[in-house]
Amino acid sequence: MEEPSHPDYIEQDTDKLMTDVKPVPVLSVLDDYEMIAEKDNPLTGEEITDLQVFHWDIERWSDLDHRVNSPSFEAGGHTWDVLLFPKGNNQNEFVSLYVDLTHAKSHPDDSVCAQFVVCISRPSDPTHYVTSSAQHRFVPEESDWGFTRCISLDPKKPDGLYALLEDDRVRITVILRVVKDTTGILWHNFINYDSKKVTGYVGLQNQGATCYMNSLFQSLYFTNSFRKAVYQIPTEHDEPTKSIALALQRVFFNLQHMNTAVGTTELTKSFGWDSFEAFRQHDVQEFNRVLQDNLEIKMKNTPADGAIKNLFVGRMKSYIKCINVNFESSRSEDYYDIQLNVKGCKNLEDSFKDYITEETLEGENKYMAEGHGLQDAKKGVIFESFPPVLHLQLKRFEYDMMRDMMVKINDRHEFPTEIDLEPYLSENADKSQGHKYILHGVLVHSGDLTGGHYFAFVKPEKTGPWFKFDDDRVIPATLKEVLEENYGGEMTGVIRPPMNKPMNRFTNAYMLVYIRECMLDQILAPLTDQDIPRHLIERTESETRQRELERKEKEQQHLYMRVMIATDETFRANRRFDFASFDEKNNELIVARLRKDLTMAQLKEDISKDIGLPKNQFRLWLMVNRQNRTIRIDSPIPDEEDQSGLDEIRKRHTTNQTVLRLYLEKYRPEYGQPAFPPYQMSNPYALIFIKLYLPETQTIQGLGPMYIHKDAKVSSILDDLRRMAGFELDQDILLYEEIRPAMIEVVDTHNTFNQAEIQDGDILIVQRTVSAEESEYLISRDEHPTADSYLNYEVGKISVWFAPVHPTVHEEDDDEDESESEEEEEFELMLHKDMGYEQISERVAKELGVDSDKLRLINPYVTGKVPLKRFAGLKLGKILPQTAYHRAKFLYEKLDVSLEEMESKCMVTVVLCTPTLKDEVPVEVLMPKDSYMLKDLMTELAKKGATFKTVSGTREVRFFDEIHGKFNVEYNDEIWRDRVSAFNALKIYAEEIPEEEMMKTDHDMYVSVFHFQRTTSHTHSVPFLFLLRENEPWPETKKRLQSRTGLDDKEWSKVRVNIVSRDESLVAPVTDEEDALTRNIQQGDMIGLDHMDKTARMDRHGNGAIFIRG
Fold it and tell me: Which pLDDT does position 401 carry in this prediction?
């Protein structure tokens, strides 16, 4: 049910003169219902299959129930009625009224599209009425539609119900047009929409901003010959996330066989893209070219070799032909797509004519013909062949010279469903077969230069319908939607205020796909099962089965819980602190996914079968988290819990734990009795666990469990401990208790176990006593003579990753071994929190196989711009923030000189600007911190081969630096000394002082010049000092300024010169009418050159160039 549109009350305005107002025709709901329908619900191109009018005369309005259904009526072969709420539906201020398709719920697959106008009128005057109109797709879920606030119940309203009631009577008229649903989705709300069911096709999921990619892939998928060629690339042994060919095969296979939208994450990972890249829109043409280049390489020496060239590559010839002499220069080249102008061309034929239009070279632009001198000539391009599948790129995005920026061209540009391209072929081209091309795909961009949305229209079959592929949704499309709605230009009937001009469409075609008519059957030939690699089918079927299992598991996940069972073997395998590592990756731990309602008795039965012991020869203990951050046994599970479910037991005994952890105790003959020692609250026995520490091997391991009597002295078990450890009975031993991490204490053997506070689950460590000499030797080797020092050290271990400061980027690398070696540049080392810089450096150098003296480590966690020298003497544990302990990472840099030398010197990057400021050559030199003069820097630059490239110049050098793209300071010896001694790294610029400055007078002045784009904060290029001559005419100053920048005439023509105040609050353009610049510029002012930033290679979306991993 829908809220109403504003009702229209039709009556003549008697206050206006007939000469001022065009008379409004008086329409009757009885006789003029077709005109009323057209006025209130104008047709928008839909085909009407039936129009019916229904009148419902209500005699006693005040006696109506809360909800009333009208008599039924027929329209379009369907039965309808009116659902009326006289006192309102879910409100009481308005009458609510809905048109109802009565049989909708009994015919779940039916849908009817209808437009309707509801008129409420006086019974005696059918020209006095109020209207409400709507259109709707009637389906079982929405079988009634209309107006919750149809007409006011306020008696004071002149257009309310009470103004129309006559003796408690009123007439309700429904004018209903049934509309033909050509596509099957007219006015669809797309709730629970099934693309596969409606169209037979599925879409592609959008990862964030990959709609441009999705539109291209749908077009390529339905180019069946291309899909077949992709399938022919051998990929049996590839991994999807590392093989573009296999990932693309899988996308194509899933598009053909899945019932839901297909994901592309695997494919973009194979490109080498991360999730950030998936949120960046790129140019489709550039992406298509990079993709095809990559696939061509993969297809070499395979059954698919040459497929891309055979499908998409044509040939064109560029020529210059002299008019008056017999001379022609030409060059033929391949093309993968054709870029056609939209601006100035009303249709595709005009664009092709424009493309091959000849340019006359004459006058000052004559052509230098070899052997003939300067000649008048014709310059042009002609097509020598067109490919079977023709990609046409419509130049919707162009550079606007007047605005000095990229803009989107939204002009109207028509394209046909078929086009004959023979007129655009050269005379010598092969014309034995026709060159009529049929439209196969239209890729569309909706939006502006900064962003928008991409989708595609594709006609998959030769004689089939069109479909719109919009990411994960596929819908049928009409030819009008394909053509007219994507031509661009003005939107009919839409006016843009306040100028009242027609609004342009921002949705238009930018790429067209045509297929040569004589090759349509070949290009669109259906693929058979034999065309799909068998391994692809098998792998996909296996993954489908696995996904189904995972789906079922997920559905039943709430019924299951994890149970971890530790055994004596688990304890013996532990080489670190505590009982064991309760990590699911621990192979010595039994990890099971069990039903929550499984009883303890059933679990014991299963365990009995698995270990081959009767149930009276083992028992299970609960393991709990102690407050001292350890996991120990707590108490055996009593037999009374046998009929309790596992989750009940967990909740009852270990409420704060999500996993039920158990210890499996097996009966041992040394117990000397048929059952386990009894467990009571005042139990005299305790079950403890023993570990052995071996100083000679620097290892610790579990030995096993032991029952002790709490009132016995600790010394009573020493011989048993010696036997467990394999020592002689006269061996001196030490005994420690593991209390908590970093708290390992010696046990006084003279105390009783009660006095030592030893209880169930406690862990004791036994080791042989180490002599003073051996202890000293072990310590000298950074080893640990006692268990407490060893475990305290182990607790301080930290896993640290190391990565190069400048990672190697591979564009294309066919050498697999070399690629793998590069990937090993990032590695992991186990270090200790007490290690200092030199110790860490030695470990890293050993791993890299380099000299530690020529290695620099950088701590990325330090705050500030300059890394602390050698971690400022801090230990690893003090350097790392607590949040970094689980994924600690440092950077390393291999040096050409020793670290000591580097730290005692300053790394100076000199940007040599020669022969102009536009030509930048960076040179790195290492300078002593006590360097005294700039002459020292000149000497080092000369050793590096740095020279100025001007033909004739002063050879006097100016060194300077910049801040935020603006000239900061010119260096002299004093400034140089201060900077080089204070900083570890410097970046400065060097230029040859212009000859004009050698003739500077006292009346001339220097001004700093900087480059910016639009705003003075967006700086770019190299700033510089410029000499302003007193009273020099502006044209001459402007010419010298251009010369300093190194910009050619074309580039300089786009530069706008401005005077910028010191605080940048004022930016005043300098016009050509300017007399002399020195008369308007003040001390501290700067000259700002406003022009496009071409120093950064960005696409029209502001993103870097597309890359796809080889």
Answer: 66
Question: How many residues would you count in the chain?
Answer: 1110
DSSP 590-606: EEEEEETT-BHHHHHHH
- What whole-number distance in Å separates Cα of residue 1108 and Cα of residue 556? 41
Closest to 1108 measured CA to CA, from 27, 297, 44: 297
From residue 484, alpha-carbon distances to 414, 442, 487, 489 in Å are 8, 12, 5, 10
C-alpha distance from residue 497 to each of 344, 408, 494, 901, 1042 (Å): 26, 21, 10, 70, 44
d(CA 441, CA 444): 10
CA dist 863 and 620 (Å) reads 52
Average pLDDT, the chain: 85
Residue 594, pLDDT score: 94
Catalytic residue chosen out of the listed positions 211, 322, 345, 906: 211
Quick one: how far is CA 776 from the chain centroid? 58
Helices (DSSP H) in 796-898: which residue ranges?
A: 816-823, 837-848, 876-879
Q: Which helix (H) or strand (E) holds 198?
A: helix 195-199
Choose among 924, 994, 986: nearest CA to 958: 994
Q: CA 469, CA 941: separation in Å to the nearest integer?
A: 60
Residue pLDDT, tens place only, 734-752: 999 999 988 999 999 999 9
Backbone dihedral angles phi then psi of residue 1030, each to the nearest 5 degrees: -60, 125
Q: How far is CA 653 from the centre of its chain?
A: 46
- The reported pLDDT for the residue numbered 21 is 41
Q: Following DSSP, what letter does each residue of 709-745 receive, concatenated?
A: ETTSBGGGGHHHHHHHHT--TT--EEEEEEEETTEEE
Q: What's the per-residue H, E or C state across 39-76?
A: HHCCCCCCCEEEEEEEEEEECCHHHCCCCEECCCEEEC
CB 914 within 8 A of CB 921: yes
- Among candidate residues 55, 107, 128, 453, the one labeled active-site is 453
> 10 Å Cβ neighbour count for 1039?
11
Cα–Cα distance, 446 to 462 (Å, whole number):
27
Helices 646-653 and 600-611 sit at what angle, rounded to 10 degrees? 110
What six digits make up the tokens of 725?
Answer: 């450890």
**Under the phi-then-psi rule, with left for phi > 0, alpha for psi from -120 to 50, and beta for the rest, what region is 999?**
alpha
pLDDT-based confidence at residue 331 (cuts at 50, 70, 90): confident
* CA 931 to centroid of chain Cα atoms: 49
Residue 794 DSSP SS3: helix
Cβ pair 83, 100 in contact under 8 A: yes
User: Measured between alpha carbons, how far is 636 from 678 in angstroms, rounded to an integer?
Assistant: 10
What's the whole-model pTM score?
0.59
453 an active-site residue?
Answer: yes
Element (H, E) at 571: helix 568-573
Other C-beta atoms closer than 10 Å to the C-beta of 892 total 23
Give the highest mean pLDDT range of 28-42, 548-562, 686-700: 686-700
Q: At a CB cut-off of 8 Å and minimum separation 6, what does 1096 contact?
A: 1020
Nearest to 510 by CA among 556, 441, 567: 441
Angle, to 10 degrees, between the axis of helix 284-299 and the axis of helix 211-221?
A: 50
Question: Helices 934-943 and 973-982, interaxial angle, to 10°?
Answer: 70
The whole-angstrom separation of Cα 854 and Cα 896 is 7
Compute CA distances 820 → 135, 802, 823, 850, whole Å: 63, 17, 5, 19
711, 698 Cβ separation under 8 angstroms: no
Confidence of residue 885 (pLDDT cuts 50, 70, 90): low
- Per-residue pLDDT reduced to its tens digit, 1065-1077: 777 788 777 778 8
- What does the alpha-carbon distance between residue 867 and residue 873 come to, in Å, rounded to a whole number? 13
Contact, 440 vs 516, CB < 8 A? no
Q: Average pLDDT, stretch 306-314?
A: 92
